[in-house]
Design goal:
147 residues; alpha+beta; 16% strand
Length: 147
């Protein structure tokens, strides 16, 4: 990452312009071109420096549900369970962990009932109980890169 990559990441964490040409507006604020900004974001995503680029919504404020969930999956069954869990559109992220609860994932749904339905489907499809851990309090930790 160079200084511009760091500046892009630091700047865009604080918000993204809401206008007809948001990339052009953000690029002007960063002292670069719209095409360069888009190319840099694409490059950071392709290199997995960024895992995603897009808005974050407060699902609960919109009537939805968001929670962290986990499964205890034996290593020999991990691949099968991963395929089943990742096939659900409600699963936003899925991570392997070196822990008794070896699979952790985020469930994001439009309603709390859809979340319960997704959990029931995962339990039925995998044969393992889901440990559901809904958000109680939200914390935000900013990530800043020194230039």
């Amino acid at each position: 990452m160079d200084d511009l990559d760091r500046a892009i990441i630091n700047h865009l964490q604080g918000g993204f312009p809401v206008c007809s040409r948001p990339f052009a507006e953000a690029a002007a604020q960063l002292g670069t071109s719209e095409a360069e900004l888009i190319a840099r974001i694409d490059k950071l995503l392709a290199a997995k420096v960024l895992s995603r680029f897009g808005p974050l919504y407060h699902a609960e404020r919109l009537g939805g549900a968001l929670s962290l969930a986990a499964l205890k999956v034996p290593p020999e069954d991990f691949e099968r369970v991963t395929e089943r869990v990742n096939a659900l559109p409600e699963v936003a992220h899925n991570y392997a962990r070196d822990h008794a609860l070896s699979m952790w994932f985020v469930l994001a749904t439009e309603t709390p009932q859809q979340q319960l339905d997704a959990i029931a489907r995962i339990e039925r499809d995998t044969g393992y109980p889901v440990y559901n851990m809904p958000k109680i309090k939200e914390y935000f930790i900013g990530l800043r890169f020194e230039a």
